[in-house]
Amino acid sequence: MKIQLNGYILVPDDRLDAVRAGLIDHIRLTHQEPGCISFEVTENPDIPGRFDVAETFTDQAAFDAHQTRTKASPWAEITAGIPRDYEITEVPG
């Protein structure tokens, strides 16, 4: 089963520049991970500070590896304490 994550993060105004800058490497590194099918983080045009997140991995192991890498990355430091609202689902594939 593929693993999909959909949701958003709500970035405070005073951290927007750091998040935007860090996002470039975060996206690049995630796209290079084995099992990453898609990974998109886009700034919502209608809700200031909201970044919409949509990602798909080939299976639970690939998703877990992504989570492990991310927790030890600069992205984790840049976004520490920022509210997130995600839904993770399994989809056939």
UniProtKB/TrEMBL annotation:
**Pfam families attached here?**
ABM (PF03992)
SUPFAM superfamilies linked to this entry: Dimeric alpha+beta barrel (SSF54909)
Picking any one GO molecular function of the record gives: monooxygenase activity
UniProt-listed InterPro entries: ABM_dom, Dimeric_a/b-barrel
Asked whether the UniProt record includes Oxidoreductase among its keywords, one would answer yes
Keyword annotations from UniProtKB, A to Z: Monooxygenase, Oxidoreductase
What are the residue boundaries of the ABM domain, all occurrences included? 3-91
Record-given protein name: Antibiotic biosynthesis monooxygenase
Q: Which organism is the protein's source?
A: Halocynthiibacter styelae
